[in-house]
Amino acid sequence: MPAAKRKRARKVAVVGVSLSDCGRVDDATPYALHAQAARRALADSGLDRSAVDGLASAGLGTLAPVEVAEYLGLRPTWTDSTSVGGSTWEVMAAHAADAIAAGHANAVLLVYGSTARADIRAGRRTSNLSFGARGPLQFEVPYGHTLVAKYAMAARRHMHQYGTTLEQLADVAVQARANAAHNPDAMFRTPITVDEVLDGPMIADPFTKLHCCIRSDGGCAVLLAGEEYVADTAKPPVWVLGAGTAISHTTMSEWDDFTVSPAAASGRQAFERAGVGPSDIDVAELYDAFTYMTLVTLEDLGFCAKGEGGAFVGKGRLTLDGELPTNTDGGGLSACHPGMRGLFLLVEAVRQLRGEAGGRQVRKAGGRLPELAVASGTGGWFCSSGTVVLGRG
To answer: How far apart are alpha carbons 61 and 367 in whole angstroms?
Structure first.
């Protein structure tokens, strides 16, 4: 088709974001947290609920997102229930942006809620050692190879191959906590030291307790809409500039390289489609169920060369006033982690670009707000990745 006759793709913006109550929430159901987050995101956008014709949800109910839609009183004509672990929400955001750009939907709500912490405390569920014992996983489960052990083994490989140290990994947790100290909604805000991380109880060698994410309750929501809705929204738009998705493996024996995550593929796609590079990014929000995830994702997104992540995270580079403010709310290591945390990355990225992050607000030279942010989610044990580049103005 000649360029003059090709229909221009519709621009897509994030027009509303919110958190539900988070942290320690003992008196709410996951459905209630979904509803609370959804209401707040709509209020944040200034749009009426009648504008929402798309819903993306995963992780709740037998027929997600059908049950969530019914609970919210929505009858969407576009839906997505992709479930690939923590990266689910970046993958869903990519799908939703494509659907809106193509005119298949107008406004899509991504919503999540979990009472993972409260359920364990109340005895409604127990901690799971594995995701199941069927299919390819049957060859690993009998040997007690837990999720945390898989991450730990990958971290050990990076340490062996590139000389990454325990102190460098621990510094990731220290800087996440330093950021959380400025976030009144963070579950843990007391500063920690590298020595305190190293001296904690061992969970899976080399990870001590503070190398691992916290367990919390909470939910959040993100509303994306076509460009023509922006004139009626309550807040400045944050544009979806580019997104990428990738999957890698499920069994460790099929993972080609323990030191490379699927973010290497999803990040490359997202940056190419956005027309920017890692050096242009002002704020990074990365999935951090374990300290090694942050380090290797920084490498795979191109913020530093492979094997140089250990040195890169030093000198406070990830703190609010560092060269690359990362996980500015404190991340899953300190702020909140109620399960599939990827949607929280998008919420924080949008708030930073809008200038709504309060005491943890990142500022560029001259006090200017950040202009570009990247949110990159990881699912399973580096099984999947979704990366989204967002821009202001």
So the answer is: 45
